User: Fold TetR/AcrR family transcriptional regulator from Vreelandella populi.
Amino acid sequence: MFQLAQPDLDTLLVKKQSPLAAPDLLKKAAIKLILERGFSGATLTPILKEAGLSKGAMFHHYESRDALMAAAYMHLLGRAMEADTAMAKSLQAGETTLENFLEKIVARYRSETFVVTMELAVAVRTRPEILKASKGFPEWQKFQSSYWQKTFELPNKDPEQTAIHWDMLGYTLRGIGLRKMFGTEQKNNTLLATAIKTEFFSEAVVRPLTD
Assistant:
């Protein structure tokens, strides 16, 4: 598994606090242990030990391990939406180039955060309690379905072709992330971003930034 550096782990939380509140300590511990041990290895006892909290303190905030995992997952998805939105706005405002934007997108899909997110995504399929605790992640689903179309226009494609085009990009990015996880992707971010630009952005036009 990946080894997560402490500064990177801190950035997974919405805000650094001194000291961290109990829910943030629990989410931080869960994320760290999922990264190190996988979802199945991130059991309650080591999570509590990592967080430095008692079982009673944990159940004061979360009714179960699944509820904690749902909270950690929603947190990671929220950070992903924040990061992608900021990158899109920078591109649309002319503050960065398409090449730089795509490199950052690729880097996010190859990051430690993506590893944990995918572990939790798989867990959701086998543990419906996590999905129930998260109430289905409606904000994430809405964000995914609209992000690329809000950022780019494809003048030569109809709506159905456009939807398929961006779906294929999503599959490609997740594939890049998975190959990184399993050590089978050796290309660097720049080469991958260049290939993605050629494949998916030859006809794309950046939409102007609107309030």
Notes: DSSP finds eleven helices and two strands in the chain. Residues 43 and 65 are 8 Å apart (CA to CA).
